[in-house]
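Private note to self, pasted from the team thread so I don't lose it. C-alpha cells:
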C-alpha cells in the first residue's frame, strides 16, 4: 500500500510557482502597466476591495457574469442619459440609477426585452444609445400586441432593427425557415 502512495506524482504547489516569481523581470511589468491601458486598468480594478467583493460575491458562474454585465451596461447607459447636474452629485446619481435599474429588471412585461436587447448590444459591441433602442423595442412590442401606434417613425425604425436582428439570428443558425 505504501508503494502506491510513493508512486503518486506530486501536485503542483505554490512552491515552484513562487520560485518562478523570483525570475520575473519587474521592469517588464512596469512597462506593461505604463504603456498598456488595458493591463493598467485591469490591474487597478482588480486591486480594489470593492471590485473583489463584487466579483467574488456576484460573478461565480457564467450566468452570474452575464447577469452582472447586463446590470453594468444598463447602469452605465442610464447614467449617460441623466442631466449633468444630476451626475455631479454621485450619491443622488447612484440612488436614481439604482431605482431605475430596479424598475427595469422587475417589470415582468419588459424585462425579457431589456435583457435581450442589452445582451445583443454586448455581443455586437454597439456604441449606440442602448436606452433608445430598448425604448423602441418596447414600443414595437406594444404595437405588435395592441396595434396601437404611438410614433410611426419609432415603429418603422424598430421594425427595421427587428428584421436586422432576425437576419443575424438566422445567420448564426438560431432561426430555422419554415
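Design output:
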Amino acid at each position: 500500500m505504501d508503494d502506491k502512495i510513493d508512486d503518486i506524482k506530486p501536485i503542483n504547489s505554490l512552491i515552484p510557482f513562487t520560485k518562478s516569481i523570483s525570475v520575473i523581470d519587474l521592469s517588464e511589468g512596469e512597462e506593461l502597466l505604463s504603456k498598456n491601458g488595458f493591463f493598467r486598468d485591469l490591474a487597478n480594478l482588480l486591486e480594489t476591495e470593492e471590485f473583489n467583493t463584487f466579483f467574488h460575491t456576484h460573478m461565480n458562474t457564467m450566468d452570474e457574469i452575464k447577469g452582472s454585465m447586463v446590470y453594468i451596461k444598463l447602469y452605465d447607459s442610464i447614467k449617460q442619459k441623466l442631466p449633468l447636474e444630476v451626475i455631479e452629485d454621485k450619491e443622488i446619481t447612484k440612488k436614481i440609477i439604482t431605482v431605475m435599474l430596479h424598475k427595469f429588471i422587475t417589470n415582468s412585461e419588459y424585462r425579457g426585452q431589456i435583457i435581450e436587447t442589452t445582451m445583443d448590444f454586448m455581443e455586437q459591441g454597439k456604441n449606440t444609445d442602448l436606452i433608445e433602442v430598448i425604448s423602441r423595442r418596447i414600443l414595437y412590442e406594444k404595437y405588435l400586441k395592441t396595434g396601437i401606434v404611438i410614433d410611426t417613425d419609432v415603429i418603422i425604425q424598430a421594425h427595421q432593427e427587428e428584421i436586422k436582428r432576425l437576419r443575424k439570428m438566422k445567420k448564426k443558425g438560431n432561426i430555422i425557415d419554415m
